[in-house]
Design a protein that fits this description.
With about 240 residues, the protein is an alpha/beta fold. It has three domains: about 80 residues, no CATH class; about 80 residues, Vaccinia Virus protein VP39 (Rossmann fold, 3-Layer(aba) Sandwich), CATH 3.40.50; about 70 residues, no CATH class. Helix content is about 30%, strand content about 20%. It contains six helices and eleven strands. The strands form four sheets. A four-stranded mixed β-sheet has the order 6-7-10-9, with no helix packed on it. Strand 9 and strand 10 form a beta hairpin. It is globular.
């Protein structure tokens, strides 16, 4: 008698539904939040496994309609895939504030989570302008708008927004940016500085700065409620010893 256990063990593709995948990832997500914060790299492990099966995109259902996420994105898409939501407090606030017939501008629309929410809240009598400069985000934004039947409500603009007309370089987190934080817990740190991947070669071994007093020079900007200095040249980082 042949023992079927001697053969290779394979999981049928049908098992990999959004619900089953989310159920398996949720415990990892809980550990990921507790040990290293919501932006830690642990989320890259299940995402890499899913990319091997599904490719770069994965479709879940949010409010009973399809929504496609990016399996390279360890933050926004990962959160949406696991919890079927992104920033639940803001979501709840918008659900109370946005009314049928409103006109909404979504600046930095990403892959369209809030764009879709706004469009479904304003309805056919309203309109949404979704602005997003990153090409892959634009691709998924347009796909999600179309898949949810919102093309008549949403106008997608592939551009960035600034104080004046012009052009600028667009950097993405996937390109390997380096953040210099000055608190033990980045979530409570009021200030950070960032070296974009294109400029990293100008700085040498950034890790050698750890634990040393330094002076950071540059223009201070605001990002996600924190003060930030963008570093382009090594002269912006000076030893304070």
């Amino acid at each position: 008698m042949k023992d079927d256990r001697d053969g290779p063990l394979t999981a049928p593709r049908a098992w990999f539904t959004p619900e089953n995948v989310a159920a398996c990832i949720a415990p990892l997500k809980a550990i990921h939040h507790r040990l290293a914060g919501p932006e830690a790299a642990l989320s890259s492990i299940p995402l890499a496994a899913m990319r091997a099966i599904f490719g770069d995109d994965f479709t879940v259902r949010i409010r009973r309609k399809p929504f496609t996420v990016n399996l390279h994105d360890t933050i926004v898409s990962f959160e949406i895939m696991v919890y079927k939501a992104w920033q639940p407090l803001e979501t709840s606030l918008y659900e109370r504030l946005v009314r049928p017939g409103d006109r909404v501008i979504d600046v930095g629309a990403n892959i369209g989570y809030f764009t879709a929410l706004f469009a479904e809240l304003v309805g056919d009598e309203g309109s949404v302008l979704a602005i997003e400069p990153e090409p892959n985000n634009i691709r998924l934004l347009r796909k999600n708008v179309a898949a949810r039947g919102l093309a008549d409500i949403v106008t997608v603009a592939e551009t960035a927004v600034g104080a004046s007309a012009g052009s600028a370089n667009l950097y993405t987190a996937a390109s390997g940016n380096t953040f210099l934080d000055f608190c033990q817990d980045y979530r409570t740190c009021p200030f950070t500085s960032v070296i974009f991947a294109a400029d990293k070669a100008n700085f040498g071994d950034v890790a050698s700065l750890q634990g040393k007093p330094v002076e950071i020079h540059g223009d201070v900007v605001s990002f996600r409620g924190r003060a930030e200095i963008i570093l382009h040249e090594s002269s912006q980082v000076r030893s304070a010893e």
